[in-house]
Amino acid sequence: MVYRSVLKAIQPLRLDKRTAHKDTMSSRFPQRRHNMASFYQPGRALSDGEQNRNLIEVSFSVLEISSSKMDLIKILEKTVSPDNHELESAQQFLESAAAQNLPELLTSLSNILKHGGNSPVARMQAGLQLKNALYSKDNAIKLQYQQRWLQFPQEMRQLIKKNVLDTLGTEAVRPSSAAQCVAYMACAELPHGWWPELIPCLTSNVINPNSTEMMKESTLEAVGYICQEIEPEILQPQSNEILTAIVHAMKKEEPSNHVRFAATNALLNSLEFTKANFDQEAERHLIMQVVCEATQSTDTRVRVAAMQCLVKIMSLYYIYMTHYMGPALFAHIRHEDWRYRDAAVMAFGSILEGPDPDKMKSIVESAMPMLIELLKDTSVVVRDTAAWTVGRVCEILPESVLRDTILKPLLTALLEGLEAEPRVASNVCWAFSSLAEAAYENAEQPDEDSEPETYCLSSCFEAVVDRLLTTADRTDGNQHNLRNAAYEALMELVKNSPKDCYVSVQKTTVIILNKLERVLSMEGSIQSNNDRVQFNDLQSLLCATLQSVLRKVTPEDAPKISDQIMTALLQMFQSTSGKPGGGVQEDALLAMSTLIEVLGEQFQKYMDAFKPYLLLGLKNYAEYQVCLAAVGVVGDLCRALGANIGSHCDELMMMLLENLGVRD
C-alpha cells in the first residue's frame, strides 16, 4: 500500500500497552486533534509522562490518516482546514505519499474522485491533487509531468482514466475537477496517438439525449480545456466531431445556460483548428447563427462568451465576416453593459483589414458616428478600443473619415482624447498618425513628387501640433508608451504637411530645438540609472523629431537655425563619448545626416568641429549601430561637399579600410 512507508516510520515508537489501549478507546469520542508539529516545543523540557502522551497522540494521529481509504479522505478534507497545523500535516503527508509511490496515490485519488458517496470537499481535493500531478503553468515542468505520466504502467493509466471519465457528470460543484484531469491526461497522450477513443466518448456524452445537464456541462469543460492547451493540428482530424458537439450544445434550444456557457467557451478555445469548417458556407452560417443567437441569451456569462467568440472569429476569418457585421455587432455597440460595447468595437476593428474595401465602405461610414461617440464613453476600456479602431479606419479606409461631416466631429473627439488616460491618449496619438498620412495621400497634387498646396487638416494643423507637444510633456507620459506615441504622431504630422502649414513647421522646429537644449542642460542633475535612461530616451525622441522637421525646412531657411542645431548635437556627442549610450549617438548621427543633406556644401564650416566625433563613431565597433550610422554620414558628406571632402579623405578612408578588416 501507498501508506506502508508511514506505518514503518511509526513502528519504532515504543508505546505503553495500557496507555495505548486507553487512548484507542478514547479516540472513539470527539477529541482535539494534534499534528506532528505539536509534538515539538523547543525551549521547554518535557516530563516522561508528557513525552509518552505526545508520542501516543502523534502515533494515533498518523495512524488515523494513513491506515485506510477513509483516512485518505480525511486527509483530503484537512487540506482545506482553517487549522494551519492540520493543513500542513495533510500537505506533508500527500507530498510524502507522492514521493513514495505516485502511481498508486493517483489511483487512490481517482477512486475517491469517482465515488459519489464521498464528501464534495474530498472529491474536489482529490481532483485538484490529481490535476496538480499532471499540469504546471511552467512549460518545462509541465513537460516533465507529461513524460512521467506516460511512463506509468498502462493498466494504472487505464484505470485512472476510466475513473475520471466515469466522474464526469457526477460532481456537485462547478467547475468540474474531473474535466481538468481528463484534459491534462489528454494533453499528455493525444500527441502520441494514445487514447484514440477519448474524443468520440466526449462528443457522445454531449450529443446523447439521455445525458444529464451536469454530464454535458463537465464534458464540454473538458473539451474546452483540451482545445485550449493542445496544439491545434493534433485535433484537426477530429475537428468535425468536436465542432458538431459544441454547436449542438450552443443552440438556443438547449435549456441549460450552464451547458450553453460551457459550449461557448469550448468554441472559443477551438476556433483555431476550424478553418476548414469556416471555408464551407453552410457550416460557417450554422456556426455564426448559434454564436449570434448566444449573444442574445438572457444569461450574462453566455452573452459575454459569445461576444468573445465573435471577436476571435472576426480576427481569424475576417474575409467571410462582412455578411454578419450588422446583426451581431451593431446590436451591441450601444449596449448598456460596457463589455458588450467593447467586444463589438473590438470585433469591428479586427475585421477592417481583409474584406473588399468597397464592401466595407458603407458599413464603416455608418459606424463612424457611433465610434466618435464611443471616444467619450464612460468606460476607459471602451474609449481605448474605440481610439484603436478609429486609427485602424484611418489607416485602412481613410476616405471614410476625411469627409467634412465625419472629420470635424472626429478631430474634436480626438483632441479631447489626448487629455484622457495614458492608454487612451496613446491610441489617440496613433489615430492622429494614421489620419495625417491619410489626409496627405488624399490631398490634390499636381504630380506624385510634388508637395500639395493644402489639405483637409490645414485649418487645425497648428492646434493639433500644440496639443501633441503638450501631451508629450505630460507627467504620466512614460505610461503606455504615451510620450513616444505623441512624438511619433508629431513626426507623422510634420512629415505629411502641405505647403500652407510651413510656418507652423518652422515654429515646431524652433520648439523642438529649445526642448533639446533644455534637456541637455539637465545633464548635471542626473542622480540614478533610471534618470539616465529617461534622459537618453528623451534625447533620442527629440533627435528623431528634429530629423522630421529638418526634412521639411527649405535650403534657404536651414542656415538660419543650423548653428543652434550643431551646438546641440555636438553637446550630445560630447556628453556620450566613451559612455554606454549608443542609442543616443546613433540618433544624433542620423539627425546630423539630415542636417548635412539640407545644408549641402554649407556644412563645410562645421567639419572641423564634427570630424573628431565622426571618427569616434567609425571606431565604435562594439556598438555596431553607431558605427553603421557613422559610415552612412560619410556617404552623406561626400554627396553634400563634393570636392571639398578631399581634405578629409585620408583620415576617413583609413577608418573605412580598418572597418573592412574588422571581423564580427
TrEMBL record:
Entry superkingdom: Eukaryota
Q: Where in the cell is it found?
A: Cytoplasm
Q: Describe the location of the Importin N-terminal domain by residue ranges.
A: 90-170
Query: Is-annotated flag, keyword NADP?
Result: no
Q: Which Pfam families match?
A: HEAT_EZ, IBN_N, TPR_IMB1
Main location per the UniProt record: cytoplasm
The record's keywords, sorted A to Z, are: Cytoplasm, Protein transport, Repeat, Transport
Gene Ontology MF annotations: small GTPase binding
Per the record, its GO cellular-component terms are: cytoplasm
SMART domains documented for this protein: IBN_N
SUPFAM superfamilies on file? ARM repeat
Q: Identify the stretches annotated as HEAT repeats.
A: 367-405
Q: Give a yes or no for keyword Repeat in this entry.
A: yes
Q: Which GO terms describe its biological process?
A: protein import into nucleus
Q: What protein is this chain from?
A: Importin subunit beta-1
Q: What phylogenetic lineage does the species belong to?
A: Eukaryota, Metazoa, Spiralia, Lophotrochozoa, Mollusca
